[in-house]
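Box 3.1 A note on notation
Throughout this textbook, protein chains are presented in two layers. The first layer is the amino acid sequence; the second is a token string describing backbone geometry. Keep the layers aligned when reading.
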Amino acid sequence: MSISRGNAMEQQIRKVVLNRWAVVCVVMFMVLVGIAGCGGEREKKDMDLVLGNWVYYSNRTYVLTVIDMKGTWTSSVRVADVTSKIVDSRGTASGTWHLDEGQLIFTVVASDINDVWEKEGTYFYKVLELSDHLMVLEGENGRKQEWKKTVRSKGKDSPGAANPIVTMAPYAVNLDKHSSNARDRYLCLSMHLELMELMPEQPVPQFHPRARDAAIMYLSSLTYENVSDFDRIKVQKKKVKDILNPYMDGLIKDVVIDHVVVAVSAAKVEEFIIEHTVAPSVEEPAEGEEGETSEEETPQNS
């Protein structure tokens, strides 16, 4: 009887011990899962913070790097003089990136700036600080770099366009003609300027009224043959860029023609101007334009 009792007590004690161990194991498992979950959430948050447009400055050299959510990056290097105006573009690089246990790792796929990003090289940076506007990295050489997040100027065609956009009021000018018997035609243009990348806090230059006058004078000298097809319009677009660039500190990257119409009636010209006038405009309101024009052909988006 006493032996049976002893066995029963021993089994009960074992059961209590096993239950306690089971509880301890469950608690430890939950703690580990919680830690792993927190780590995963933190890593995800850090990855979100890493995304964006960053600039690192050293010795009047700006390294602009765009890190995107697809796991790729692009970088360009620009040199500025003491007035903070861009005086030289040294080149670009691109590749892939990932974040691993507090390290930001860049792999270079293509580069023409090997002294900054060596092609097929891999760069490891320890992330010392990361916030919405600042990222402090430590390179393999132990040097610290402060990367500051910049805000992109948004263009109308691409919500994340890297280059500032300067809009312009529409142009409408009389096309020149070789003889008085030739048909009257008028060139109507809606276009905007795409600028080069600017340095942080560098203001976007304003479109000067004299620049508009110079463009009108040049466009008025053209004949119908100069703008009769897309290829010829592209040639004129390059010439307009050369005319406007001195007024924009040489920062025009491209002149983008949104719409072009060769008009033959005043009603069509007025229609075009009303349709393509956006208020407020970055430049001064259109003045001194040739008032009467109208539509014949509409080649667009050259």
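The two ends are 104 Å apart (CA to CA). Residues 36-40, 152-161, 279-295 have pLDDT under 50 and may be disordered.
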